[in-house]
């Protein structure tokens, strides 16, 4: 008699489904994008609507650039052997310890302070 196969763990099922999903996504996504923009209804834009579409895409690009700038200014990483003093509207607000922190951009002004311990044997430096 052959031994019965051991049941697979749920994690291995999840890993195999994730692998299949990522493979199909990388293969199918380009075809979906091409088919989306080659449909006659989407390509047949009248000249009066062409300026509106261009203005929409320009505003979309500007909004994405602005969002990237705001996100870049709101995420702060305090490294080991550092603290960050946070001033809100020019007054002390809090001290951030090492780790990942989110601040309010253009309102909170961070100032990084490096520190370290110096151990001496009682001799003058």
Automatic annotation (TrEMBL):
UniProt key word Membrane: yes
Keyword match Glycosyltransferase: no
Name of a matching Pfam family: Band_7
Organism: Sexangularia sp. CB-2014
Domain Band: 77-114
Protein name: Band 7 domain-containing protein
Keyword list, A-Z: Membrane, Transmembrane, Transmembrane helix
Transmembrane segments: 53-71
InterPro entries noted in UniProt: Band_7
